[in-house]
Amino acid sequence: MIPHNRPTLGENEQEAVARVLSSGWIAQGPEVEAFEAEVCAYLGLGSGHAVALSSGTAALFMALWVLDSKGKRVAIPVYSCAAVRNAVIMAGGEPVPIDVAEDSPNIDLEQAVRASVDVIIAAHMFGVPKRWCDKFTSIPVIEDCAQAFGARIDGRQVGVNGTVGVFSFYATKMLTSGGQGGMLVSVDRSLVDAVRDYRQFDSRRDRLPRFNLQMTDLQAAVGRTQLSRIDVFVRKRREIHARYCAAGLSLWPATSLPGIEPCYYRAIIRVADPASAIARLEQNSVRAIVPIADWELLQEVEKSPRAGALARSTVSIPIYPSLSAHEIAAVIETARTPDQPAEMKPS
Questions:
Q1: Which tens digits make up the pLDDT trace of 5-26?
Q2: What are 227's strand-pairing partners?
Q3: Is the domain covering 11-227 a CATH 3.40.640.10 domain?
Q4: How far apart are CA 282 and CA 279, in angstroms?
Q5: pTM of the entire predicted model
Q6: pLDDT band at 39 (very low <50, low <70, confident <90, very high)
Q7: Which pLDDT belongs to residue 340?
Q8: First to last CA, the chain
Q9: d(C-alpha 164, C-alpha 59), whole Å
Q10: Which has the closest alpha carbon to 85: 129, 149, 144?
């Protein structure tokens, strides 16, 4: 069976872990500091503008905390994972679910503004970034890049276009720090410093409440190794995506907007019957999933018709750097003729 997703790990990651183990220091330390600095350099940020955390969810929670979201209305993408809603609730905010934009898996920013929210969480779903206009600068935007590390908007890396950017380094994300891990970044150094202070929970004389959301040096060492190969990972995903398109697979979104450089965390095909498409793929040893099912939406389907249409007519097929040429050919052969509708409309 060709897995739907799997991490791209090898000898370099093993050597990085061995190096940390032999050092005798495995908790948060010099590897974490180096990882933060290298992420800043990759994103084009100044030194000290990133803080490593225990997970992407922790990074999102801290973004909400540092933006003082308690008691405020926070626009969340209804087409996203439950961690987004949970983080808002944990931070004391009021989640305001917003449907996806037309012909996009990303949040409808205009609808979010009309909802009179105080903070917007804009997730770049499937690694296909969303651009926003100057009109949104009056509302703090948390750029959720959990699926989009390595993607660009107008030549700029994602994560630096909003008030705060958050990343996930879960096992199967664009890069992993060994299973869990996250990062918060911002062009505003004061926000990052506040989060770093919160993370440093122990031996503090001021008695202010803090919490242990630290990344370990073991995780950071794996993350640093993965980061050194992120451009290779992104290029491989783009090559696989191009092969799928050339083979006639009905990938969605079909094209990218000018200035948008996706990293293709997911390869999404449009189908009339996701269950039968997945069953046929699995009969041919290809694992596929519904990326977000209707019951997983962060609002009732009838209140979010566009997201509901996506949930009922999309399937995610394998696209990750460790796919072999043989596996890519097998996915193409199996997915080439699904029953795909001519267009996707809310029902």
A1: 999 999 999 999 999 999 999 9
A2: none
A3: yes
A4: 5
A5: 0.94
A6: very high
A7: 41
A8: 34
A9: 10
A10: 144
